[in-house]
TrEMBL record:
Its EC number is 4.1.1.35. It is found in: Cytoplasm; Golgi apparatus, Golgi stack membrane. Belongs to the NAD(P)-dependent epimerase/dehydratase family. UDP-glucuronic acid decarboxylase subfamily. Residues 379-403 are annotated as: Disordered. Its main location: cytoplasm. The keyword Cytoplasm applies. This is UDP-glucuronate decarboxylase.
Length: 431
């Protein structure tokens, strides 16, 4: 079956054609097709596993394939041509940028996104750009990549700056989304001192900037501030259960002190703050070697390798799709809610169950694309990492009451889209 038949339905069974919300006098909705056209490039859209057949599509055929998924937006695609004989890629710049809203100056915000070239940041940048804002991305490219936002380079509303937030940065802006920090346990543990320095000094610098410019400041906190929780599900008034000297502490405690700093600046200096506690999130543009569970499982299953469950697989997580998170972040920034808000999906899985779900979805997508069934991949067990939380599920009552926000994407729908994204990267030789 070709991707043209992909339809995405929300938890109530209604088709999802737009993402974003109409809240607080601000309509942040954009068509899903437009977003997809930014992360599923034309040669990524494939209908079989024969790499030569894919790359030999003429431009017109490739556009037609792509149009099935992102109807009407092929004009705005960069053409990246893969040459299998030499394993090289030829990139072109966009001939035209996707149309962005023409906002009156009074509504157009100057938005700074730290970590804007990361997984979450790049999806936020896509939204803010399409909505007509002026966006500056700060990134040191430690875990982020220029390719995630390269489709906006050259646009008059967009600026990309290589900068590490541990150093001060000056700019005039109206809003700051502070996302900069490695988020995957193997990445944030590889240089623990740098991680805590980023959380502390990076947040200090950005709060200083918010104080000077009177910008509204949103910091990306995490479910990890609850540690290995004794309260389930986790609501925002729970203070958490964190090992302050364990290998995860650089991140958990770093984010906790970032929250403390944020509310210090609010009380002391009147800075207008927002705190999003983000639960496990996945989606396209996650680095395939990021090391977190969703990307690991999908890439392993696609490559026919053993899927690695840590421990006995009875620990739980609740996974949210990237578009739901971005809806929540934009709604929170626009709202009057200055208390911390959990942004996450309440659908909880044991990691063992989740491995089986991912395996089943990968097999389904492969069958639809005519890939002959090979040997079923095995699920194997590896040692449990130290201090790995045993359970995690957000209580999102506050997000519902204060933001009118609830997640719409089911794990099945989100994983299926992410499988297609990685499958295409694999076919291109990019995995
Ligand atoms: O290959 C793998 C990877 C991970 N896992 C397990 O899957 C669970 C989830 O692990 P992840 O690494 O994806 O994420 P964690 O929940 O441990 O941490 C995450 O929490 C929320 C965010 O702030 C961060 O993105 C990240 O720190 C853990 O129990 C982990 O042990 C596997 O079983 N196999």
């Amino acid at each position: 079956m070709s991707p043209s038949y992909i339809k995405t339905f929300d938890k109530e069974g209604n088709e999802i054609t737009t993402v974003g919300l109409d809240r607080f006098g601000f309509d942040s909705r954009v068509p899903l097709d437009v977003l997809r056209s930014l992360y599923l490039r034309s040669h990524y859209i494939i209908s079989n596993n024969d790499t030569k057949a894919i790359v030999n599509l003429s431009d017109k055929e490739a556009e037609a394939e792509h149009a099935k998924l992102s109807s009407g937006y092929t004009l705005f695609q960069p053409t990246s041509i893969y040459f299998p004989e030499t394993a090289s890629v030829s990139y072109s710049t966009l001939s035209r940028f996707p149309p962005v809203k023409l906002l009156p100056l009074s509504q157009r915000k100057r938005v700074l996104v730290t970590g804007g070239a990361g997984f979450v940041g790049s999806h936020l940048v896509d939204r803010l750009m399409l909505l007509g804002h002026e966006v500056t991305v700060l990134d040191n490219f430690f875990t982020g990549s220029k390719t995630t936002v390269s489709h906006w380079v050259g646009h008059p509303n967009f600026e990309l700056v290589r900068h590490d937030v541990v150093e001060p940065f000056m700019i005039e802006c109206d809003q700051i989304y502070h996302l900069a920090c490695p988020a995957s346990p193997p990445h944030y543990q590889v240089n623990a001192v740098k991680t805590i320095k980023t959380s502390f000094m990076g947040t200090l610098n950005m709060l200083g900037l918010a104080k000077r410019t009177k910008a509204r400041f949103l910091t990306s906190s995490t479910s990890e501030i609850y540690g290995d929780p004794e309260v389930h599900p986790q609501h925002e008034d729970y203070w958490g259960h964190v090992n302050p000297i364990g290998p995860r502490a650089c991140y958990d405690e770093g984010k906790r002190v970032a929250e403390t700093l944020t509310y210090g600046f609010q009380r002391q200096d009147g800075v207008d703050v927002r705190v999003a506690r983000i639960f496990n999130t996945y989606g396209p543009r996650m680095n395939p070697y990021d090391g977190r569970v969703v990307s690991n499982f999908i890439v392993q299953a696609l490559k026919g390798e053993d899927m690695t469950v840590y421990g006995d697989g009875t620990q739980t997580r609740s996974f949210q799709y990237i578009h739901d998170l971005i809806d929540g972040l934009i709604a929170l920034m626009g709202s009057d809610e200055s208390r911390p808000v959990n942004i996450g999906n309440g659908d909880e899985f044991t990691i063992g169950e989740f491995a089986e779900l991912v395996r089943e979805i990968v097999e389904k997508v492969q069958a639809e694309d005519g890939i002959p069934h090979q040997k079923r991949v095995e699920i194997v067990h590896k040692p449990m990492p130290t201090d790995d939380p045993q359970k995690r599920r957000p209580d999102t009552t506050r997000a519902k009451q204060s933001l009118g926000w609830q997640p719409r994407w089911t794990a099945r729908m989100g994983i299926e889209e992410m499988v297609r994204y990685y499958k295409a990267k694999l076919a291109e030789g990019d995995l």
